[in-house]
Design goal:
Number of strands: 12
CATH superfamily of the largest domain: Type I PLP-dependent aspartate aminotransferase-like (Major domain)
Distance between the termini: 25 Å
Order of helices and strands: EHHEHEHEHEHEHEEHHHEHEEEH
Mean pLDDT: 97
CATH architecture of the largest domain: 3-Layer(aba) Sandwich
Low-confidence stretches: none
Amino acid sequence: MIGFGAGQPDFPTPDYVVEAAAAAVHERTNHGYTAAGGLPELREALAAKTLRDSGFACDPSQILVTNGGKQAVYSAFATLLDPGDEVLLLAPYWTTYPESITLAGGVPVQVTADESTGYLATVEQLEAARTERTKVLLFNSPSNPTGAVYPREQVEAIGRWALEHGIWVVTDEIYEHLVYDGVKAESMPVLVPELADQTLILNGVAKTYSMTGWRVGWIIGPQDVVKAATSFQSHMCGNVANVSQRAALAAVEGPLDIVHTMREAFDARRKRIVSLLSGIPGVECPTPQGAFYAYPSVKGVLGKEIRGERPADTVALADLILREAEVAVVPGEAFGTPGYFRFSYALAEADLVEGVTRVGNLLSEAK
């Protein structure tokens, strides 16, 4: 079986990061509790890294180190939301977003963009979805699952709209370095500085440094909000594992060589998978500009007969592909948009070609 589901780089964590973690195990200072908000030296390094990479200036006191990006997402909403507050959720969305909003007592309000716009939502769509209960906009660029990257002028326009209406922005920038074709991932509070007082930036080491299992993320925001989120974390789980924090410190203070290596490999795979998917009848695949996902529409195949079956939705079609082609893909229902598949191209190119070829051969039987 060939799997296209994994949302993690297929590269090892850099040796210098592993070595820093190994050394940290033997330091007794790492064997006990530390500050719930994160090691002071890591928070300082994250402030420097953020200024270097996105141009956003912040104080270490504005940073909370979390147990991976998922905790950053949940803690952001647990801190900002009151019961019934609405969050504008750009779809297709990462599967954890609506669950975190709901767990925090909020109400996700889906704003959907499709392949006709490259999966980019407009200010007009956001305004149409805004109500008196709208409190937060969740923004993710580069996007999981589509790989879409919002251009500078659109990021600024959305930021100006949020500022005008007093809407908080939670912006997930974890794929910031994985962009292609000369595209840049723009940070909204950098383009709209006045928005900084109502923005939380989420990030982590998972994608940039191939450290998904180390579980280190962070929140950057206004001091009062970060203080509240830190208090919440102190009662929920306390500090992030010190060894992981030491590894993250080595990562963010070190070079970005691994990112350049991964980006070069992902770029070649990106072009290959888009070419292969676009050659399948009934499949439409926009070219992603970031992350490591392709998000093709397969609506042209649904309802057609394939080996005696007529899958009516992408859950059924994914099941058929798994059984008949031995290829695993994630159906669009998981991301709020039925009729699509997410293909992660974080796998060996030979497997990528073989897997998409199998899917193509099966779907070409549709009649």
